[in-house]
């Protein structure tokens, strides 16, 4: 059932294709059919019903999430210049997962993804699974 879906993790929002410093960490949570993303300071970047979101997963592991006509390019890890997730985000993720155990099993990473990408593509495939289970339109 959609109202039983729960998942949370910290992903990185690629605000620029070229500038790694503009790749910001987001705490993304999915509870029931509610999808929410918060920045390093706890400010809400997006909030919507999962059924109002559309997602497309690229071969390289970028999840393009479209909500309310705005596209967010999300990746499983930031670049070398990206800011680290804040303590508020890390504690928020841990608290969410304590209160709402994940209902989606993490995807296994392939060897190249593990070695070259820190399993970031598998991280985003797990998000695609979670969004699809919650009613989002997901294109793989």
Describe the structure concisely for a colleague.
By secondary structure, the chain is of the alpha+beta class. It is built from 3 helices and 8 strands, in the order βββββββαααβ. An 8-stranded mixed β-sheet has the order 4-3-2-1-7-6-5-8.
Task: Describe the 3D structure.
This protein has helices at 87-99, 111-117, 120-133; strands at residues 6-14, 23-31, 34-38, 44-49, 53-57, 63-67, 70-75, 137-139. The protein is built from 3 helices and 8 strands.
Write the layout of secondary structure elements.
Elements: E1 6-14, E2 23-31, E3 34-38, E4 44-49, E5 53-57, E6 63-67, E7 70-75, H1 87-99, H2 111-117, H3 120-133, E8 137-139
Parallel strand pairs: 5-8
Antiparallel strand pairs: 1-2, 1-7, 2-3, 3-4, 5-6, 6-7
**Mean of residue pLDDT?**
89
Major beta sheet, specifics?
8 strands, mixed
Question: Could you give the order of strands across the largest sheet?
Answer: 4-3-2-1-7-6-5-8
Radius of gyration: 14 Å
Q: Spans with pLDDT under 50 lasting ≥5 residues?
A: none
The portion of residues forming beta strands comes to 25-35%
What is the overall number of helices? Answer: 3
The first-to-last residue Cα distance is 22 Å
State the total count of DSSP E strands.
8
Order of helices and strands: EEEEEEEHHHE
Query: Could you say which structural class the secondary elements and strand pairing correspond to?
Result: alpha+beta
Shape: globular
Percentage of residues in helical conformation: 10-25%
């Amino acid at each position: 059932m959609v109202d039983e879906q729960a998942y949370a993790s910290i992903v990185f929002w690629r605000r620029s294709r070229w500038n790694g410093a503009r790749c910001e960490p987001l705490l993304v949570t999915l509870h029931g059919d509610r999808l929410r993303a918060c920045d390093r300071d706890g400010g809400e970047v997006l909030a919507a019903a999962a059924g109002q979101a559309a997602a497309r997963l690229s071969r390289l592991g970028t999840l393009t999430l479209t909500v309310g006509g705005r596209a967010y390019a999300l990746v499983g890890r930031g670049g070398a210049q990206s800011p680290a997730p804040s303590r508020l985000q890390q504690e928020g993720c841990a608290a969410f997962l304590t209160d709402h155990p994940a209902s989606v099993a993490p995807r296994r990473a392939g060897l190249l993804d593990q070695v070259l990408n820190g399993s970031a593509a598998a991280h985003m495939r797990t998000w695609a699974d979670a969004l699809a289970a919650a009613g989002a339109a997901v294109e793989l």
